[in-house]
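Notes from hallway chat w/ T.B., transcribed later so I don't forget. T.B. wanted the structure written out for a chain they're using in a teaching module, and asked if we could keep both sequence and structure tokens in one place. Agreed to drop them here.
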Amino acid sequence: MSPPTADWIQLHDRFYRKQEIYTMLWKQVDLSKYMMAAAPFGGPLALVRDDRKVLLLQKQQPIKPSIYLYTSSGKLMETIQWEKGHIVGMGWTETEQLLCVLEDGTVRMYNILGEYTQFSLGKEAKDNRVIDVQFWGTGLVALTGSFQLIAITNFDEPRPLFLADPGINEPPHSWTVVPPKFTLSRHVEVLIAHNSTILVVDATEARDERLQQGPFSKMSISPDGKYLALFTADGKLWVVSIDFQKNLSEFATRSQVPPQQLVWCGTDSVVLYWDKIVLMVGPYGDWIKYTYDDAIFLIPEIDGVRVISMDKCEFLQKVPDATESIFKIGSTAPAAMLYDALEHFESKSPKADENIRSIRLELGDAVEACIEAAGHETSHQYQRSLLKAASFGKSFLEIHNADSFVEMCKVLRVLNAVRYYEIGIPMTYTQYQRLSPEALIDRLISRHQYLLAIRICEYLKMRTDRILIHWACSKIKKSNDDEDTICRMVVEKLANKPGLSYSEIAMTAHKAGQSKLATMLLDYEPRAGDQVPLLMSMQEDELALVKAIESGDTDLVYHVILHLKRKLQLGEFFRIINNKPLACNLLESYCKQQDPELLKDFYYQDDRTVDRANLTLMESFRQKDSTEQINKIKAALKLYQEDKEHTFEAKAIEDSIKLLQTQVQLEKDYSQPFSGLSISSTVYKLITINQSNRAAKVRGDFKMPDKRFWWIKLRALVEIRDWDGVATLAKSKKSPIGYEPFVEECVKAMQFREAAKYILKCDAHLRAGLFLKIEAYQEAGDQAFLQRDLDTLREIRDKCPNAVIQGQIDGYISQLASSR
């Protein structure tokens, strides 16, 4: 095992290393003849023949151009046949989708399997052609032939956005994009090298930074968005802050030829590439030169640079601090002493104990440094030795939280799995921390590495639902088996995952034209809210209604019912819901509030005569015109008469019609409103307007009982203070309601004299109490004495204010008391 410092090179006060990650699996690919784009975080490579360069065709090589997708290890993933037109530029999204921008403004977005969606940059791009394009993780900016800038900031909803006019009339010397996450406005900005200065362009303005050092033939923004590296026409590398306020460094490359690539290695050095020469320049003007025999391609990462050549993939990076503290020659850092102690211990040297004692106070930090250094290593041997050193060190600690050790072991196992050349994702520990395990799983899923993705999820205790769903969707798209076989295969695989949603799988089957399979799969969907809308989109309307009813979610049932109402003819609509009581009840409830006509049709087709009659009767109440109201009630009467079990309702409605007709006539005769009144109220109102004879006729027409008529007439006469009429009523014949109501009504009207006229006609046992109500204490006492009612006498005495009458009542009380 070669020493870890074998590939280290010092640049001022720090070390850099260039490690070989893979020997490329492809055969003799001359990168100088291809346009190339690479996804970050160890992502795939896209190559297409550069039609500006002459290419010597090999045997069996197609004449038509193709886009080749490779892993970082050179393994071919997919070949996309290209017949569309000239590609201006290629780039990758943060979700590893390949973007191809064409001259006519068409943008194709491919996944790793070669499936694509397409959108356009608009009329401006089509008319004036696209001459260049720049990408970032979630968007792109295109430069048209009229030197206008068009941005796409969201690939999920691609809407072309015109940036401000930069005001140039010739192609820029170079340009680049500042992603929105690095700008103060949180909107994309474009840096354009024009003449000797730089223009900063956003959606609202183009600002001249008024620089004099240009023109700038290359520019590149650091991964953290804080710095900008510029290559000037006189061969200088100039690094400034992104706001151009701080000059960080200048370096003379002595080359008048601009580099083919200018990229950042992390955030502290810049890498330039000319034909077969790579120059790394540090922040203090120190430099490192690498030479290559063939063309290469540089891929900037957040912590280094991937170098792709014909025969290998390398990673150039600053040596991590933890690694440097351990392996640097002559290092006496605690972590180095711990690592050295392990070597002595394995060789059974007593110096191991001496090393441990010397770092006793810093042993915890040394353990953590060894753990971190293990994460930054790609060599399995050094990973093991560093973790072993950490384990050795923590055995001397009385208290130590081993979570970081356990977590690092898990991370390294995952990283080693995805770095394997068959998978070809050379992700570093730093990139893994930035990307997240979930995003890594998504990348494995997009590559159809389902088994590895599932094993990683199970190892990290993450849910595997999305992996299985993607597998099932892919199986449906590619399988040639019959639908029953595919359904059985999918269900068996997903059976031990309770709660897993089948809706996305069913939708894939539906889009693939396998509707029967989609319906079968939806039977296993546990969530009705996902199941029902999909059934509706598949035209499985009745099944959608059944599933909505089974869910018990009334909102969902309403959603299906209203969808069916809009979509179907009435007959078909009613046929579907007729044998479903819950759906019928909800439809009735809805129609009563929103659509009475639909409810009438529903009752008619279901032969619900009485319900139709009730509905018609309710409609009559809302009519303002009396004639219309009568017609509606007659229609309801006809419906009630069809049902022999509702003769009472029919008779009541006949009376209602008769009353309404009478009220219409009364309104004509007396110019008073009568409509809407009951029979009793009609009679009452007639008496109050001195139409007693007409009231008596109405009473006779509707066979009003005597008791009710007397009550109504008495109250009406009292209301209009017709005391003579009250007396006449009382004398007309024996009162069917007695005479106590006469007294009570007069008392309510505070007419005590009138009330006194009728008290003696009341029952004897009531007279004392009635006289007391009208404050006739003398008469009350006499009646109570006659009834020999001691309690009432005492009550009268207590309430009577007259001393003479009180004495007389006391005498009555004494007589009754002595007689007992």
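Follow-up for T.B.: The CA atoms of residues 66 and 82 lie 5 Å apart. Might be a good example for the class.
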